[in-house]
Write a structure and sequence with these properties.
Number of domains: 1
CATH architecture: 3-Layer(aba) Sandwich
Structural class: alpha/beta
CATH topology: Rossmann fold
CATH superfamily: SGNH hydrolase
Strand order of the largest sheet: 6-5-7-8-9
CATH class: Alpha Beta
Helix content: 25-40%
Number of strands: 9
Number of helices: 13
Order of helices and strands: HEEEEEHHEHEHHHHEHHHEHH
Distance between the termini: 58 Å
């Protein structure tokens, strides 16, 4: 009875650390289809329920072009400004309802403005640029907003998303009844998850358990959350290369849009670990890293500095997100690293403020 009471209390008050996103991995089946240029595309005219136990219960709709957007003609009506939004699962609106996505909120907040959401789960800046040229420019945008997630630095090869995804620190190919029991407890017991997290976020204890062969060895860079990797103090060679490539892709997008007399705005998506300290500890609990190995604001400062040199406005909402979180507002899904409805609302405010008086 005591265990049952503690389990119920844990379910009510404990939010487990986010799992690796795999529910919407790019796939040629289900809600996606193969695309020879972009790798995958969302299927057209879908209306589906999207749930994740303990995190969210939402629905989404795609139009006849596969966009999570109401139907809109390519031809722009007189007197209307248009904003095209590019991005990955955050821009698409992972885990929230259609009307809660920041692109839809932005359209409601602006006068005489249509906002077209070209966000696609799993896309990086290279795919977004190609998608802009193939589809986005058909809408004759006045402004393009690119929502940049920190995992864009490492998703240069989009075929990587078709690979299996495992939780950092998990043993590949682990089988047997012990594994099945652990898996069942992990899926159904908040108390078990609380105990495991309490152990794994105690780095001295974890190191002691590894040294005495009670736990598996700690993971390295390849196991690090992609959205957190760019915050490392010291970059591995691959990350340095991918950082340069991402900045160059944004510069090329800026040059392309400038030639078409279209403004570019880059909106930086704060990783949950950058805003909530407990998520940072949870993300590195299975890894051979400590908090001193990270400068969590580093990539946001660098990108903002690089883009301002070429006069690209940058939305950097980290301060606003930290202030709102400090006031007790949860901006991310419980048990997931994507924006909640409140996160989308605040992100909308920050983008609107950056767009300036032209769109007020």
């Amino acid at each position: 009875m005591s265990l049952l009471v503690v389990e119920l209390v844990a379910r009510e008050f404990y939010a487990p650390p986010p799992k690796v996103m795999d529910a919407f991995r790019a796939s040629p089946t289900g809600n996606y289809r193969r695309d020879p240029l972009l790798g995958w595309m969302p299927r057209e005219s879908r209306h589906e329920r999207h749930t994740q136990e303990g995190s969210f219960d939402s629905t989404f709709t795609t139009n006849s072009h596969g966009l999570r957007n109401p139907e809109v003609a390519y031809e722009k009506p007189p007197g209307i400004r248009r904003i095209v939004v590019l991005g990955d699962s955050f821009a698409w609106g992972y885990g929230v309802n259609d009307e809660e996505v920041f692109s839809r909120r932005l359209e409601s907040a602006l006068h005489h403005t249509e906002v077209i959401n070209l966000g696609v789960v799993g896309y990086g800046t290279r795919q977004e640029f190609l998608y802009l040229q193939r589809e986005g420019m058909k809408y004759h945008p006045d402004t393009v907003v690119v929502a940049v997630c920190m995992n864009d630095f490492l998703w240069k090869d989009y075929l990587r998303l078709h690979d299996s995804v495992r939780k950092p620190g998990a043993v590949v190919g682990e089988t047997g009844w012990i594994h099945r029991v652990k898996k069942t407890l992990s899926e159904h017991s908040a108390l078990y998850e609380l105990l495991v997290t309490s152990v794994n976020t105690n780095k001295p204890l974890v190191n002691w358990l590894v040294d005495h062969h009670v736990k598996e060895g700690l993971g390295g860079f390849d196991d690090l959350d992609d959205a957190l990797a760019p915050s490392l103090v010291n970059y591995p060679e691959k990350l340095s290369h991918d950082y340069v490539a991402t900045i160059e892709e944004l510069r090329q997008m800026h040059d392309y849009l400038s030639a078409h007399h279209v403004d570019l705005v880059v909106a930086l998506i704060p990783a949950a670990q950058v805003i909530e300290q407990n998520r940072l500890h949870a993300s590195i609990s299975y890894l051979a890293y400590d908090t001193k190995d990270f400068d969590i604001d580093k990539p946001y400062r660098q990108i903002e500095s690089e883009l301002r040199r070429i006069a690209v406005p940058v939305v950097n909402p980290i301060t606003a997100f930290r202030d709102r979180t400090g006031n007790g507002v949860s901006l991310y899904h419980r048990g997931d690293s994507h924006f909640s409805a409140a996160g989308h609302a605040l992100f909308t405010e920050e983008i609107r403020r950056t767009l300036g008086p032209r769109y007020q």
